[in-house]
Q: What sequence folds into this?
């Protein structure tokens, strides 16, 4: 699926009609089309695939089309809904419009009109979602230069595309892994690439404490920027600095609603993510971020582009799409970016 392909959910208990609509939209509009046989299944699928447009029949067993429309308006008010029926009557049209349908089509469908309606409503729906979405304030915390770019470079690129405010807090200059001045300049270049603010501290590489002094450094930044989402290292990691930063960040961000832990090359098999954020449209941007760290790319196999792509591809087994970054959730109250939503918005 291309990053800007329109995703449509067709809801109809008549399989012939569903397949006809699917064929028309796929061939004439390049849409990605999912099918649901009734309203109850449709409610589950909408939560799973986040379609750009829903097309529903009125008369169906279980949850009929108008009841489905009311449920969608309650749960996902921004999604455009097209109501279709074989019964041409004023009563049906009025009922559908009163239930806040965006369009009303009659069977047999006019294929050209169907394509036109879907394209127009998909554009309108994306505009509604963007206007209604709250901008997030993102803080990504790492022990060393390139840590956050390796762990959530794609997610941060997605945040940048969504217009969110991004701050990167790196707690050491990584002197054990290379020249500290070079790594500082590399960090600045990567932050600039996604419009992020960079705080680069000077704790001793390999000797970072998870206690009070580190907690206070992180608290100062938290107090200054007031983040709504925080990304940091996992506790399931062989590197002592990574574990220490996880502990200190968890304490320092105790009043932040959403805190998630990313995977690093030194994560152990106990790293067990529960969120899988699709970065289909942002892998190349992640590679550009990592390419900023030239002092590391020659000697670190895990920074090779094919390794990065393969890792993202592996995690897509759990998150769908073709590329995913995995996260362990500490707390969650905000909605994550990425996935289906932002990869489509990039186009």
A:
């Amino acid at each position: 699926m291309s990053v800007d392909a329109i995703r449509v959910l067709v809801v109809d208990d008549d399989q012939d009609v569903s397949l006809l609509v699917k064929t028309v939209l796929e061939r004439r509009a390049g849409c990605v089309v999912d099918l649901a046989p009734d309203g109850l299944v449709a409610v589950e699928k909408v939560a799973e695939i986040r379609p750009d447009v829903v097309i529903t029949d009125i008369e169906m067993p279980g949850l009929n089309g108008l009841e489905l429309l009311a449920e969608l308006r309650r749960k996902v008010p921004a999604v455009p809904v097209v109501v279709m029926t074989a019964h041409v009557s004023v009563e049906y049209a009025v009922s559908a419009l009163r239930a806040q349908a965006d369009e009303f089509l009659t069977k047999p469908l006019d294929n050209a009109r169907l394509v036109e309606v879907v394209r127009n409503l998909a554009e309108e729906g994306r505009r509604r979602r963007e206007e209604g979405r709250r901008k997030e304030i993102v803080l990504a915390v790492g022990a060393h230069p390139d840590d956050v770019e390796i762990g959530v470079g794609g997610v941060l690129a997605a945040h940048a595309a969504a217009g969110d405010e991004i701050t990167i807090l790196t707690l050491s200059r990584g002197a054990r892994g290379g020249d500290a001045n070079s790594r500082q300049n590399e960090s600045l270049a990567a932050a600039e690439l996604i419009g992020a603010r960079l705080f680069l501290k000077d704790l001793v590489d390999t000797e970072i404490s998870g206690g009070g002094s580190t907690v206070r450094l992180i608290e100062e930044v938290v107090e200054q920027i007031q983040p709504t989402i925080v990304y940091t290292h996992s506790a399931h990691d062989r590197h002592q600095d990574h574990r220490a930063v996880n502990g200190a960040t968890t304490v320092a961000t105790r009043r932040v609603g959403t805190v998630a832990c990313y995977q690093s090359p030194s994560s152990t098999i106990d790293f067990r993510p529960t969120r899988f954020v699709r970065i289909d449209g942002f892998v190349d941007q992640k590679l550009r971020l990592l390419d900023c760290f030239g002092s590391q790319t020659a000697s670190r196999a895990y920074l090779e582009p094919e390794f990065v792509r393969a890792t993202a591809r592996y995690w897509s087994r759990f998150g769908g799409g073709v590329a995913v970054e995995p996260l362990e959730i500490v707390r969650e109250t905000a909605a994550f970016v990425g996935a289906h939503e932002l990869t489509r918005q990039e186009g």
Remarks:
- The chain is about 45% helix and 20% strand.
- The longest helix spans residues 111-132.
- Residues 281 and 343 are 5 Å apart (CA to CA).
- Confidence is low (pLDDT under 50) at residues 338-347.
